[in-house]
Design a protein that fits this description.
5 domains, 40 strands, mainly beta, 515 residues, five-stranded mixed beta sheet, Immunoglobulin-like, Ig-like_fold, HYR domain-containing protein, flat, five-stranded antiparallel beta sheet
């Protein structure tokens, strides 16, 4: 919109711009005003634009030079020096385009805004969004151009859309008898309305006439309003018939995945609005054979002699699946530390199919000893079957101690403070493979004991001793482990030396009397 500035307004604006430094002295570039077209008054107050969530709204912008008009010295945007206004919206608002191009300015002397450029704003949620000077920036224009965005500011107020679904009211016409039953043809029509956004579409809302006997037909009218909100309304119409209706009801629902896996009992009940029920078949218990889509049918008779039938159809599987364990044999043996084979659970079921097949325990134990593996299969009817096998983890075979050390019951007699070479070999029991990594030793300890516990045990003096460090190592020349034990300097004491291995089971020991 246009605003014709009088002399006083021009003076006030010029004074304000001089105070803010936006207008310079003669011969320098003046700061042009970027203005929105929301109202006809050019002022720094925030104008207001209102829309709804998701509904675009357009705002126009133009440049009003501080002095002069058109391409006068006060207009900083020209065809050869276009100016580019970039709009950075607050979070939740999108703008298109984000940049507007200006090649001229508006003149206050013309009735139509010149150089007007329009941007479209869309909000994703309700709220108040203020576009202040910080949301605008300008580039380009004449060299040294300056810009004032106070008059471009505005407030975007976004309200929520229609939140109320359509109102639906059924109209039922017909002769109503007792207990909710109609005794004539029934016509159902619908009143559908939405005062806020109107009705956009309907489904199932056309008038319908029920001219047949039924224990209950449900009609549903669904309507969607202009805001995309939907609502439904349903009515159930019952029309009496001479023959009773019969319902077949099982004593429980399916046991698993829609299947029964043990006997079920089906009871027959009837309904008749006119003459009532005289008798129904006795309950039927089904216990086999297995099968799919098995149907059990029974009847009810009313006092007029009309017979109605009811059925229950179901799937029945009472046979468990077959199951076996693969990848390992019953009684199979393994050396400690060797990887166990991949064990599989194998199952088949000829009717409902296999739902799961699991191995327990998982992962398999790797400790020394005999362990049990159990495979459990479950079919889709919930029947289960298990089978088990065993396997054994063998401890390592220890050879030692080797000479010069004697093993129990002999007691080794050595000089205190001397070094005794403890030599031994370790083999996998089944494969016979020799182990050479010192890390197979879990613990090596020397424990002082009461010499009286060794009284009466045969002794053997060790004449050969070794010197050197006490670290455990594998001697590749001799093909054995060696640990040089530096005996304590404690005369007339007795010691038990024990080596324990990582298999958690194997160990060797020797007894020493220090002289």
């Amino acid at each position: 919109m246009m605003h014709n500035w009088n002399g006083r307004e021009r003076s006030v604006l010029l004074a304000a711009l001089l105070v803010t430094g936006m207008v310079t002295t003669a011969g320098m570039t003046f700061a042009d005003n970027v203005v929105n077209n929301i109202d006809t008054t050019i002022d720094p107050d925030l104008e207001t634009v209102t829309t709804t969530v998701g509904t675009p709204v357009s705002v126009g912008f133009y440049i009003r030079p501080t002095t002069g008009s058109g391409d006068a010295p006060g207009c900083n945007a020209t065809g050869s020096n276009p100016a580019y206004l970039t709009i950075s919206p607050p979070a939740g608002v999108s703008v298109s385009p984000t940049t507007l191009t200006f090649v001229g300015c508006d003149s206050p002397d013309t009735p139509v805004i010149e150089g007007l450029q329009t941007a479209t704003f869309t909000a994703s949620s309700a709220g108040t969004y203020n576009f202040t000077t910080g949301n605008f920036s300008m580039s380009g224009g004449k060299p040294g151009s300056q810009w004032n965005f106070a008059n471009a500011q505005f407030t975007l107020i976004v309200t929520a859309t229609d939140t109320t679904p359509p109102e639906i009211t059924p109209n039922i016409s017909g002769t109503l008898g007792n207990n909710g039953w109609y005794t004539s043809n029934v016509t159902v029509s619908w009143n559908v309305s939405d005062p806020e956004s109107g009705i956009a579409s309907t489904s199932g809302c056309d008038p319908t006439t029920i001219n047949y006997d039924t224990t209950g037909v449900t009609l549903t009218c669904t309507a969607t309003n202009g805001a995309g909100l939907s609502s439904s309304k349903s009515v159930t119409i019952k029309r009496d018939a001479t023959a009773p209706t019969v319902t077949a009801t099982p004593d429980r629902g399916p046991d698993h995945n829609g299947w029964y896996n043990h006997p079920l009992t089906i009871t027959f009940t009837g309904e008749d609005a006119t003459s009532g029920i005289a008798a129904c078949d006795s309950p039927v218990t089904y216990s086999g054979p297995d099968g799919e889509d098995i149907t059990v049918t029974g009847s009810c008779t009313d006092n007029a002699g009309n017979v109605g039938f009811g059925s229950y159809t179901f799937d029945y599987d009472a046979t468990p699946p077959t199951v076996s364990i693969g990848g390992i044999s019953d009684g199979q043996q393994f050396d400690f530390g060797d990887p166990l084979p991949e064990v599989t659970c194998n199952a088949t079921d000829n009717l409902s199919g296999v739902e799961s097949c699991t191995i327990s325990p998982s992962p398999l134990p790797t400790s020394v000893g005999t362990h049990t593996i159990t495979a459990t299969a479950k079919d889709n009817a919930g029947n289960t079957k298990s089978t088990s096998i065993t396997y054994t983890i063998k401890a390592w075979t220890i050879v030692g101690f080797k000479p010069p050390v004697d093993n129990p019951p002999l007691v080794n007699v050595v000089k205190n403070g001397s070094t005794v070479p403890l030599k031994f070999e370790v083999f996998k029991t089944i494969s016979g493979e020799e182990l050479t990594d010192p890390s197979i030793v879990k613990q090596l300890k020397a424990q002082k004991i009461d010499c009286s516990t060794l009284d009466g045990s045969p002794t053997d003096e060790i004449e050969l001793t070794a010197t050197g460090g006490t670290s455990l190592r594998y001697d590749w020349t001799e093909g054995q482990f060696i640990y040089n034990w530096k005996t304590p300097t404690q005369k007339d004491t007795c010691w038990k030396v024990t080596i324990e291995f990582q298999d958690g089971y194997s160990s060797i020991r020797a007894y020493f009397r220090l002289k």
